[in-house]
Please model this.
Amino acid sequence: MHELRSTATLPCDPPLLWAAQGLTGASRARAWVSGDGRAFAVAVPDLSRHDRLAVSGPAGSLAPLVAEVLAETGPSYRPLGDEATVRALVEALPELRPVATFGWMSRTRPLSSAEAGAADEGKARWLADDDAEEITALLAEAFPGSYAVPGAPGVGRWAGTRDDAGRLTSVAALAWSSPEVGLLAGVAVHPSARGRGLARTVVAKVLAEALAVHGTAALMVDGANDGAIRLYESLGFAYRRFLAAELTPEV
Model:
């Protein structure tokens, strides 16, 4: 990873750096660059529940690169990137088809002193391993489709808020982070506690940790979830419309 970055081969683009996972042997991530140096592809298995292939670059350079990479990695890898990039890739490679649009959001700007103070003074606290069963129960009720669950590979620290009776009311996690990108996941608020600003409180706590440890914070969001997007934008995240594609299954 240091060699790629020091030679300016791999761009300082959060999705690529997240997929690269440090390009260590433990992560099993691999990166490719096109011959003209304009297109990039980073493949990593079982990252946030999918074999992922993050891509970037103009279609003329990217299409032959992706075709070569998929021939090597196999059909389980899904190219993902900015929507315009992946749509151009799908047009250039008829064997691909679009499968899902979503939002990639990231923030690199450090917290202001006011933001840092609010994160420290909020009601969100880091949870312990003993809280795993309670976190799982909250997710089952508030966010049953969450990829991040306690104990899953790559899922790290959980933060949460509790009511006056000590019941867990909201959670968020750092999961599948790379050395340079801390990924927020599993953001959920118990139905009985919604409308109180708890999502903002718990996300601010995890955001502060992600920026402090990794330098960049990121998350993926349903593109139709306007409320969540507005919340993350108010916390300084910038929105990018992403698209994932896959190889068309053979009949």
Observations:
- The first helix runs from residue 2 to 6.
- The first strand starts at residue 30 and ends at 33.
